[in-house]
Amino acid sequence: MSETAKKTTPLCEEHVRRGAKIIPFGGWLMPVQYTSIVGEHQAVRNNVGIFDISHMGQLIVSGPAAGKWLNTMLTNNIDKLGLGQGQYTFLLSEDGGIIDDLIVYRIEKGEFLLVVNAARTDEDFAWLDRHRPTDVDLKNRSADFGGVAIQGPRVAQLFHALFGEDVDLPARNHIVDLGFDGAKVSVARTGYTGEDGVEVFFRTKDAVKFWNAVLEKGDPFGIKPCGLGARDTLRLEVCYPLNGSDLSPERNPIEAGLGFFVDLTKPKFIGREALLKTKENGSPEKLVAFRMQAKGPPPRPHYLVFENGERIGEVTSGTLSPSLNYGIGMAYVSAPHTKIGAQIDIEIRGQKFPAIIEKKPLYKKS
Amino acid sequence: MNVPEDLLYTETHEWIRREGDKVRVGITDHAQSELTDVVYVELPKMDRQANAKEAIAVVESVKAASDIYAPVKGTVVEVNKALEADPGLINREPYGQGWIFVLKIDNADDLKQLKNAAAYKEQIG
Questions:
Q1: What is the pLDDT of residue A309?
Q2: B63: chain A residues, CB-CB within 8 Å
Q3: Residue A232 belongs to a domain with what CATH number?
Q4: I need a labelling partner for A29 at 20 to 30 A (CA). Which of A185, A204, A260, B104 fits?
């Protein structure tokens, strides 16, 4: 499939067997779609869908000083996490640039699970390991675990069909360990689609069994296996950033409009000084969401953004929104031009198409 | 995958139907199934002259924009305006209502460079 070595998830054969189109993504071979990106997107918005997220990395940080140390490495405040609770957070370099965005869960009193982006796993591990004190243990468990995201308004019904009517769904952003047909699985109430959903992690050897069980039990609920294509349209409609597109080492969380996940009242974390400076001076550019004003070609990454003929920025994510049926996207634009409602132009193959800067998220459940 | 016997094909997945001194052009069933969910078509300009293998139209799916090439040298004499309102025609009827443009060809001998159905089938495996 490719000249360079690519990793495969424990579900790769299942994807191929079900007719998925496979593409390289972040060093992995992943399904981009089964039958139709739009059809899979609608399944998640209206019923329920399942995604293979086995490519995502799992790091375990443990030891009596683990929490205290992680709080100096991550932007959000770990002290706010009760047992079994997770939070969205950033791993920054000294200059505030984003190494990765991730979810950290407190799984035991002195033990944390970090679920990180596939393409950044090795870099995250190396960065953490370099800064790690000797009394904190760090393990990369990515190869031992597979995972799926089950997302959509009918997820609760499907959860009970899988785990039993008397088993409670974890609360939002919480993670619990449950038994499934003799296997131990971890179920987190999280997702990347803007719908209610869970992300389930399991041993690699249990991956195929769990995947097929979800599809079988999900059949009455209209479940569809979904690929990265639908994952991208779903997340972009609700303006969740994609690392490598909207987030990068050249951007910090303030510019990306994600300051909510940065606790500047913490006395110390890597990147704090740089973020304080950004706050004080204002960031020269900001990540905004926009919608095309008319039907036309959808915006794509790297298209240029103009206002009254002046170049003001560049698109980082763009697609045709299957829910809104308009082109949508996110772009970094220079700070004076980021007002909600401002009219901008997106240049597509030499021609300018009007768009409007909109409030995030672009799609809201009615 | 449907590959009609009476059409000609290019390596870049266009189909060509000869109509006298003109050719009607669209993208193959295989191409539409690879793209899926066509959401926008940028049609060529009328009367535009194009060389063989020159990009003259764009078909956009949710995921990506793909160039469509003139299969032989000629002049655009007809474009399928219906695709502006309903680009999904390309997915539903790639060889019928989903045609993209008609070229008046300069030299009928140029058609000999194109693939027949058997050769195209072999290409897409």
A1: 95
A2: 32-33, 37, 229, 232, 319
A3: 3.30.1360.120
A4: A185
Show residues of chain B in contact with A232, CB under 8 Å. 63
For chain B, which domains are there? 8-118 (2.40.50.100)
* Rounded Cα distance, A338 and A323, in Å: 24
In a domain, A344, yes or no: yes
Cβ(B28)–Cβ(B94) under 8 Å?
yes
A82 in helix, strand or coil? Answer: coil
| Position A253 in a domain | no
- Residue pair A289/A329 in contact (Cβ under 8 Å)? The answer is yes
A32 contacts B63? CB cut-off 8 A:
yes
**pLDDT tens for each residue of A250-302:** 999 999 999 999 999 999 999 999 999 999 999 999 999 999 999 899 999 99
Q: What is the side-by-side order of every strand in the sheet holding B74-79? A: B8-9, B14-19, B22-27, B101-105, B74-79, B49-50
Sheet of A111-116, strands arranged across: A86-92, A98-108, A111-116, A57-62, A137-140
Query: What digits encode the pLDDT tens for the residues A336-356?
Result: 999 999 999 999 999 999 999
How many CB atoms neighbour CB A64 within 10 A?
10
H-assigned helices in chain B: 29-35, 82-85, 89-92, 117-124
Residue A2 pLDDT exceeds 60: no
Give the CATH number of the domain where residue A321 resides. 2.40.30.110
pLDDT confidence tier of residue A4, bands split at 50, 70 and 90? low
- Write out chain A residues lying below 8 Å of B64, CB-based: 300
Joined tokens for residue A150: 């089950």
- Cα-based distances in Å from A264 to A105, A270, A275: 20, 11, 8
SS3 A228: helix
CA distance A340 to A257: 13
pTM for the structure as a whole: 0.94
Same domain, residue pair A126 and A189: no
Q: Give A299 to chain B, closest Cα distance, Å.
A: 10
Q: Which domain holds residue A129?
A: 57-137
Calpha distance A123→A239 (Å, rounded): 25
- Single-letter code of the amino acid located at A164: G
- Tell me B73's DSSP state: S
CB contact under 8 A, A36 and B37: yes
